[in-house]
């Protein structure tokens, strides 16, 4: 990447993430992460848990399949967490890779800006010296 920025008029480019280049697993990880990170999922999960506990607590109408300690519900939630954790980590790894590329891009842009500022300062110093010489000749 540094070779792309040697010319001061040249702009470095961030390689765009192409959705076509993603594997099915990466697409699925992104979809799952965006789904479980939504209010819709949280509210739906809360409603399912409330219904589960209500149905299994009220024994008058229904026959309960998971009485009070809700072992089956706990197992289901634990399984959900066990599956979600690695999927979220996969999505975060992709995000961190994109961030690394952006940070590298920013670093090179900052280096380019620093070089340009140094050139401008050098020119300003030469202009200042030239003006001082002119002032000395006038006096």
TrEMBL record:
Signal peptide: none annotated. This is Cyclic nucleotide-binding protein. It comes from Candidatus Falkowbacteria bacterium RIFOXYC2_FULL_36_12. Pfam families: DUF1003. Residues 1-21 are annotated as: Disordered. Residues 1-12 have a biased composition (Polar residues). The chain crosses the membrane at residues 28-55, 67-90. Keywords: Membrane, Transmembrane, Transmembrane helix.
């Amino acid at each position: 990447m540094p070779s792309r920025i040697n010319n001061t008029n040249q702009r470095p480019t961030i390689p765009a993430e192409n959705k076509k280049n993603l594997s099915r697993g990466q697409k699925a990880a992104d979809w799952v992460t965006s789904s479980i990170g939504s209010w819709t999922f949280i509210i739906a999960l809360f409603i399912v848990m409330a219904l589960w506990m209500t149905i299994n607590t009220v024994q008058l109408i229904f026959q309960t399949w998971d009485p009070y300690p809700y072992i089956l519900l706990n197992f289901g939630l634990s399984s959900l967490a066990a599956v979600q954790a690695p999927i979220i980590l996969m999505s975060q790894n992709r995000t961190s890779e994109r961030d690394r590329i952006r940070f590298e891009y920013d670093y090179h842009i900052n280096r380019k800006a620093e070089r340009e500022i140094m050139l401008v300062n050098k020119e300003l110093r030469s202009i200042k010296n030239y003006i001082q010489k002119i002032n000395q000749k006038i006096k």
